[in-house]
Fold this sequence. Notes:
Structural class: alpha/beta
Helix content: 40-55%
Shape: globular
Distance between the termini: 46 Å
Number of strands: 21
Mean pLDDT: 81
Number of helices: 27
Strand content: 15-25%
Amino acid sequence: MDLVPALEEPLDQPLKSVLGPATAKVMAEHLGLHTVGDLLHHYPRRYEERGQLTHLADLPMDEHVTVVAQVADARLHSFASAKAPRGKGQRLEVTITDGSGRLQLVFFGSGVHKPHKDLLPGTRAMFSGKVSVFNRRLQLAHPAYELLRADTDESVETWAGALIPLYPATAKLESWKIGKAIQTVLPHAQEAVDPLPDSLRDGRGLVTLPEALLKIHRPHTKADIADARARLKWDEAFVLQVALARRRHADAQLPAVPRVPAPDGLLTAFDARLPFTLTDGQQKVSKEIFDDLATDHPMHRLLQGEVGSGKTMVALRAMLAVVDAGGQAALLAPTEVLAQQHHRSVVEMMGELAEGGMLGGSERATKVVVLTGSMGMAARRQALLDLVTGEAGIVIGTHALIEDKVKFHDLGLVVVDEQHRFGVEQRDALRGKGKQPPHLLVMTATPIPRTVAMTVFGDLETSVLDQLPAGRSPIASHVVPAADKPHFLARAWERVREEVANGHQAYVVCPRIGDEEEDKKSGRAKKQSPEDEAEKRPPLAVLDIAGQLAEGPLHGLRVEVLHGRMPPDDKDAVMRRFAAGDSDVLVATTVIEVGVNVPNATAMVIMDADRFGVSQLHQLRGRVGRGSAPGLCLLVSEMPEASAARQRLNAVASTLDGFELSRIDLEQRREGDVLGQAQSGARSSLRVLAVIEDEEVIAEARDEAARLVAADPELETLPGLRTALDALLDEEREQYLDKG
């Protein structure tokens, strides 16, 4: 008998060999499930209790639902139509009820015969379909259904147990069909290789993996579900944290060149030029960074800070320290507009220190070059030359910096702006440019709650800048309920005129550009909650609003338009005119969200503010109040006062603390979007782990993972964990390639 555990994961068996090709194909295409293991890890979204029904009163619109209800009545109608002109068209209307509400089902044409026979009054069944509105009443058109009969063996078997699991389903595959498929593969759960070390599992009183899989899919009691979820949460948190701990461990083994600034060099000269003193926060964070730069393994640090907390200044001082020590520093920005802007502001802050090798440059100066995809050949060639010779100490650019052609003389530090636009692989590609791995500093202006940081950026140490530099003004934010109080909106435009009359400028932000191509798309876009009239119309568009304002409430002011589909040169020109004060009001999409710096802009009106996420609103708002005059942000919405959207806007208006807002945002949106966005290419498919609720699990899993990896970095004693890790990282690589 073979005593060595087989590492071939038995759950890797393809579904088509177990379920048949047709079902397997739908599962692969619509749910991303390919193997027995994938299906076993497709957990129920919730459970129906026998005899206790989904409340028809709370059906969500436009969602795929599964309800258990009883047929109240069924009527067959004839009608005339183009296909059946002589009144031969048939429509079956069935009303179902569950005590809380009633719901209409409709079937048409030849599809009426079977349901007419099956759905007799008094029959109980599971119905599945998409909720829509017809004649102001909710209905399901052509729902799939499964009769619940207690007498036949098959259904007793299928619906055994008090709790009916309801799975995340699609129109092509109803919840109960997924349930039946799981019934087929459930015996394989016994073969699941357990990734958790025994000591950890026993120490925390967690059930084994096979038991957890059985209990989550076929619970007999609510306690079964709780046991299973507690166990599966640990799996997700722990495997992810082990992956991150191994990454940190591997990075700590890499050699790096310590970069200690010269005692009287570029950094000292730069600090002497500063017209202000750094905040305590900036000094504390700079010290953390300089300590890391002085060590002989690469720094990996996440620098979080509110919009305007002075992250760029901290990053620039780190770059100057590295140049002082003989190395080069690269700043990677997500867009060309931002790269250009960083370049301008860095050159401005450095003055003659940025004019290395030029007449009038200081003898301690270096050269600062910019590198973007749309540069002319000659300028590009010169920039590449300055990098390879080491003439340029600092380079600022977009993804163009990652290209093979770009060679550095001695890359010592990489600063990545707005982390969530860059995947782990892109960070690695840029790191590979150094003779030895360079130090890495990642900046983000979207404050991230500690747990998300531990989950998403777990391979980075974190520094937080949480105070605003002196001279930055507070921003007053107010919600403008355009539908309830139209005169508030009129007053908002008066406020914009007042700001302009005082010599300031304003932004007006809209969710959409408003040219044809996009309108077609938004016609298909799904509405979020059609019970609210405000949601029924398409979001307001830049091109429409700009015209209305220029002719109406802002007549006589210089109004310009900025959006993402304009050619880069036009965008730059508009931005430059606005920065120079040659236009009064900029009507824009969220292209201004990141990094546009116009200290003279004091007011922002955000149209259809309910269409933006909390973090995005906070980010946008940070574009005003950047000078000495106070900022004003008006959040315009037509949503009714009691709606969740309005509560979200009230939260944004009530606090300027981005960390507080990011928690609210997460609690409202679930973290899938946040992780998906932040990890850009890493696995965000947390199935049972909720990042905010499960703060303790994540923190404990991180500690356990760090201990384990320190003792056994190769995981030689834990084959099950290695298997789980390979699966996780495979998925990460796969998703990254998908995103391409």
